[in-house]
Amino acid sequence: MCMMGASVDPLVVGRVIGDVIDMFVPSVGMSVYYGSKHVTNGCDIKPSMATSPPKVTLTGGNIHSLYTLVMTDPDAPSPSEPTMREWLHWVVVDIPGGTNPTQGKEIVAYMGPRPPVGIHRYILILFEQKGVLGGVEQPAARASFNTRYFARQFNLGLPVATVYFNSQKEPASKRR
């Protein structure tokens, strides 16, 4: 049996591998919580639950390494016509191994899910850095971000952990 949550199969099924990242072998544990809700691949998170950054904890990586966390939405503005793929929601660099993003350097401030139409995927991708990332500047815009290009630009290699959730616009009139 492989480690719980270490399978990339859901990422393949959800087309996260392909649309946003390439095939990789998870080597770091990354737990993500919005309040008491544990984020698992393909789960549904209401936008109202995700207005604040999630609590992210890294385990099992190298405590001497630094990590970069990227959160994007490849389905902007709509899954059928993702003309703004990927919409950048969050970037934190220089996160010490075994800690969490609050210990890192926030390059792009967190922005919660705001899917205008359809079900959007929100993907949290963790990279292991080769060293301190100097000179990471805030992208000019959140639209049309490219995780693969960003990873190449800063020599981050393949992800070491990834999790995604689905979110859709909540009905304004009646709350369930």
Report on the structure:
The protein is mainly β and 176 residues long. The longest helix is centred in the C-terminal third of the chain and has 7 residues, at 147-153. The strands form two sheets. It has a six-stranded mixed sheet with strand order 3-9-8-5-6-7, with no helix packed on it. The chain has a three-stranded antiparallel sheet with strand order 2-1-4, with no helix packed on it. The radius of gyration is 15 Å and the shape is globular. A hairpin with a 2-residue loop joins β1 (29-34) and β2 (37-38). The chain contains three helices and nine strands, in the order ααββββββββαβ.
**Series of H and E elements:** HHEEEEEEEEHE
What does the largest sheet look like?
6 strands, mixed
The order of strands across the largest sheet is 3-9-8-5-6-7
> Over all CA atoms, what is the radius of gyration?
15 Å
**Secondary structure category:** mainly beta
The number of strands is: 9
Portion in strands: 25-35%
Chain-averaged pLDDT = 93
Approximate helicity band: under 10%
What keyword list fits this structure?
mainly beta; globular; disordered N terminus; three-stranded antiparallel beta sheet; 176 residues
Secondary-structure map:
Blueprint: H1 9-13, H2 16-19, E1 29-34, E2 37-38, E3 43-44, E4 55-59, E5 66-73, E6 87-96, E7 105-108, E8 119-128, H3 147-153, E9 161-168
Parallel strand pairs: 3-9
Antiparallel strand pairs: 1-2, 1-4, 5-6, 5-8, 6-7, 8-9
Outline of the structure:
The chain has 176 residues and is mostly beta strands. The chain has helices at residues 9-13, 16-19, 147-153, and strands spanning 29-34, 37-38, 43-44, 55-59, 66-73, 87-96, 105-108, 119-128, 161-168. The strands form 2 sheets. Strands 3-9-8-5-6-7 form a 6-stranded mixed beta sheet, with no helix packed on it. The protein has a 3-stranded antiparallel beta sheet with strand order 2-1-4, with no helix packed on it.
